[in-house]
């Protein structure tokens, strides 16, 4: 389907017009984005996701700079349901690009400043949007250039650590940790912490900013019930964050 969408005359242009049509609603002081319009734009984004996920159309999609048209949707701070639908659909397109570990894709995402868009979505999105945004950040971090991008600028590093910690504390405060969607989010958060701990540059900062609850026995039991594999990742993170700074300082 993706090659047909990409090569059929005018189709991508029509989908793009549908997406751009909601820009005016993003900053309007009066709620103007209806469920109907939101669903229509989300449908267009689902087709974009199809193109972004296909190996034969992924790079042409990137080379045409089409993901840039989604960034205004991701920088939107409104939390009403129609906006959340569009946010999630937009993140799913970026997630489809990042799913395969392709350095060319990661370089494009870094150069086009998708990182702040993900941070914003982690701050204001619903649990599904937070999960996809955190997944994208993790896929960026497992690339060496992506890890370097995050850890070489203190402001960027602490923005990420702050929002990761904020999500953990909010999950704990709301008593949502035992529910499946929230466990998925928590797993991606832990994976991000673990990857950050592999950078000697970031270990001291992590040790200062780590939410105490992550080392709580009851908290670990909840993770074990939801996703046993995440417990190993969490334990590995604590081991690395405790030892790496000493090696770095020698």
UniProtKB/TrEMBL annotation:
Which domain of life does the protein's organism represent?
A: Eukaryota
Quote the Pfam families the UniProt record gives. Answer: Rcd1
Which spans are transmembrane here? none
Note the InterPro entries from the entry. ARM-like, ARM-type_fold, CNOT9
Q: Source gene?
A: LOC105141652
Instruction: Give the record's family classification.
Output: Belongs to the CNOT9 family.
Q: Please, one GO biological process term? A: mRNA catabolic process
UniProt organism field: Populus euphratica (Euphrates poplar)
Tell me what this protein is called: Cell differentiation protein RCD1 homolog isoform X2
């Amino acid at each position: 389907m993706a090659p047909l969408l990409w090569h059929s005359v005018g189709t991508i242009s029509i989908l793009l017009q549908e997406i751009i049509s909601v820009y005016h609603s993003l900053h309007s002081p009066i709620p103007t984005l209806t469920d109907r319009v939101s669903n229509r734009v989300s449908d267009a984004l689902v087709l974009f996701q199809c193109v972004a996920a296909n190996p034969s159309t992924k790079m042409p999609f990137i080379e045409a700079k089409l993901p840039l048209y989604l960034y205004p949707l991701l920088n939107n701070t409104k939390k009403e349901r129609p906006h959340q639908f569009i946010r999630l659909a937009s993140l799913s397109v970026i997630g489809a690009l990042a799913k395969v570990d392709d350095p060319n894709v990661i370089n494009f995402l870094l150069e086009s400043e998708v990182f702040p868009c993900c941070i914003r979505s982690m701050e204001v999105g619903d649990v599904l949007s937070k999960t996809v945004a955190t997944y994208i950040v993790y896929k960026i971090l497992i690339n060496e250039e992506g890890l370097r991008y995050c850890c070489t600028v203190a402001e960027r590093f602490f923005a990420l650590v702050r929002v990761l910690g904020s999500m953990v504390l909010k999950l704990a405060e709301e008593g949502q940790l035992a529910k499946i969607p929230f466990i998925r989010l928590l797993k991606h958060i832990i994976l991000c912490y673990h990857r950050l701990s592999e950078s000697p540059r970031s270990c001291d900062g992590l040790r200062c900013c780590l939410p105490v609850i992550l080392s709580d026995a009851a908290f670990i039991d909840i993770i074990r019930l939801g996703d046993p594999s995440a417990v190993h990742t969490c334990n590995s993170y604590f081991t690395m964050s405790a030892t790496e700074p000493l090696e770095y300082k020698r």
